Amino acid sequence: MINKVSTVIFDLDGTLVNSWKIHLESCKYAYSRVMNKTCSTLLIKRYAMPTEEATLGCLVGEENKERALKFYNKYFLDNLCELFLIPPIDIHNMLEYLKDRKMKLGIFTGRSRETTYALLKYTDLIKYFDVIITSSDNIPSKPNPDGLALAIEMLEAKKEESIFIGDTESDLDIGKKVDVYTIKVDWFTENFSMNKSYEVVTASTPMDLKNRITSKI
After folding, report:
1. Which of 10, 178, 40, 41 is nearest to 109 (CA)?
2. Burial state string for 15-26 with b = 16 or more CB within 10 A and e = fewer than 16
3. What is the pLDDT of residues 119-169, one digit of tens each?
């Protein structure tokens, strides 16, 4: 049962930002530097995981993961301005609307702190968020749900007064495990078929999401 909502926690990649292109090229660069050969887009898609670190571990092996992550981060930060797509104004408008209504906003992402803050500062989204939980924090990373529970706790909220917004099946499962009302968005990513034993609520545009959240305020 969801009560009057006071808190919204967002996933980052595929939800607030479309970072697929720069993530893909950063993975390819890291792979080429560590393995001394090229890496296909198909291979990266095949080994896609909830965090950059886990994805790189699958691509180059656990023993090379930390070295690959350094190359990934360097390429990501050096090429952010060239390869990253700025979020549509509707994302800013939605977040501004929620802040104007005194909503507490947080982020729970599988991305590292370094690249998370780089994205949020570059897009000027960082100003909207009160709490940001990344894979660099001292908690288990996605798909473990502890980060979502921690974000709610840090915002001094209750789970029955919170909403989690994400774009993947993993995000839906995280919300279910924490028992938080969850909405799936698909404006940056292709919709996917799901065989869930529970109802999946979706939003196809930031305006649609704003309206769905408003109905719970």
Report:
1. 10
2. bbbbbbebbbbb
3. 999 999 999 999 999 999 988 989 899 999 999 999 999 999 999 999 999
